[in-house]
Amino acid sequence: MFYSLTNRLRTFMAGRYGFDMLGSLLLVLYLILNYLVRFILNTLLRRGLLTEVWWVTLLRFLPMVVLGWALWRVLSKNIPARCAENGVFMEGWSRLKMFFTRRKDAVVRWKSGAEERKTHRFFACPNCGQQVRVPKGKGKIAIKCPRCHQEFVKKT
After folding, report:
1. Contact 124, 145 (CB under 8 A)
2. pTM (2 decimals)?
3. Which terminus has fewer CB within 10 Å in the chain: N or C?
4. Which stretches of the chain are DSSP H helices?
5. CA gap 109, 6 in Å, rounded
């Protein structure tokens, strides 16, 4: 019986788009919105902190709209259009991830640089701008740039 049910589902889904990252995000968004509307909004209404107005009624239908959109995408037979939608979403998602990753990496680099600043000094080469690290407390030393091999004198 279980085999025939999975076989029927497989046959039904043949030629349809199925799940992807955008569909998964829509389902998670549905769950979050459904929770917010059902529990928080209803609690506010019951306690009298919020009155029943037209936008509250519309807010109750919002999770169903998101779920309908997710199911429509999953059951769609227009595969190239759904792939294009997912491609646009994935591009935006990767940009968003890269934005936060860069921020995190900058914080990590700054923290690790704080440890190095206790024992080393950093100078920019006057010729090419390359950052050069030299140990602290060595007095006036001649520093040779590893990129352009320009020598310059600095006090550490």
Report:
1. no
2. 0.57
3. N
4. 2-13, 21-35, 42-46, 54-75, 79-119
5. 51
49 domain residue, yes or no: yes
Percentage of residues in the chain with pLDDT exceeding 70? 92
Residue 102 lies in a domain: no
Residues 6+ positions from 131 with CB-CB distance below 8 Å: 122, 123, 124, 125
114: tokens are: 């704080």
- Tens digits of residue pLDDT in 68-123: 999 999 999 999 999 999 999 999 998 888 888 777 666 666 656 677 778 888 89
- Residue 61 domain boundaries: 17-96
Please check whether residues 47 and 76 belong to one and the same domain: yes
Asked if 92 and 122 sit in the same domain, the reply is: no
